[in-house]
Amino acid sequence: MSYKINEECTSCGACEPECPNAAISQGDTTYLINSALCSECVGLHDTPQCAVTCPTEACVADPSKKETEAELLEKTKKAHPDKNFSGSFPSHFRK
Ligand code: SF4
């Protein structure tokens, strides 16, 4: 389940530099999350960083894009080929 940015977005841009997967970009009226790149920050943080950063709580889980923790970790690995994710890793599934 990737995250999405809803209509509460004020286009402040705070989330964009916080996304470790470079999944966020500016759209016409709101910022947007590329669901192919979003891994819910699994493997890197125990909380999705866009949601932590957003001042209007516009970054929310997209229930139409459900993925398992393993699937999300694969997306993070793809975005960070130089990192080693063996052993324990942060994940909001484990909080
Ligand atoms: Fe980027 Fe993490 Fe937000 Fe997904 S949940 S858009 S990977 S900051």
List keywords for this structure.
two-stranded antiparallel sheet; 2 helices; 95 residues; Alpha-Beta Plaits; binds iron/sulfur cluster; alpha+beta
Mind explaining what this structure looks like?
The chain is α+β, with helices and mostly antiparallel strands and 95 residues long. The chain has one domain (3-79): Alpha-Beta Plaits (2-Layer Sandwich), CATH 3.30.70.20. The chain is 17% helix and 13% strand. The chain has two helices and four strands; from the N terminus they run βββαβα. The protein has helices at 49-53, 69-79; strands at 3-5, 24-26, 31-33, 59-61. The chain has a two-stranded antiparallel sheet. Strands 2-3 form a two-stranded antiparallel sheet. β2 (24-26) and β3 (31-33) form a beta hairpin. The chain starts with a strand and ends in a 16-residue tail after the last helix. The structure holds iron/sulfur cluster. Iron/sulfur cluster binds at residues 3, 18-19, 21, 23-24, 33, 38-41, 48-50, 59.
List the helices and strands and how they pair.
Elements: E1 3-5, E2 24-26, E3 31-33, H1 49-53, E4 59-61, H2 69-79
Antiparallel strand pairs: 1-4, 2-3
The structure holds iron/sulfur cluster.
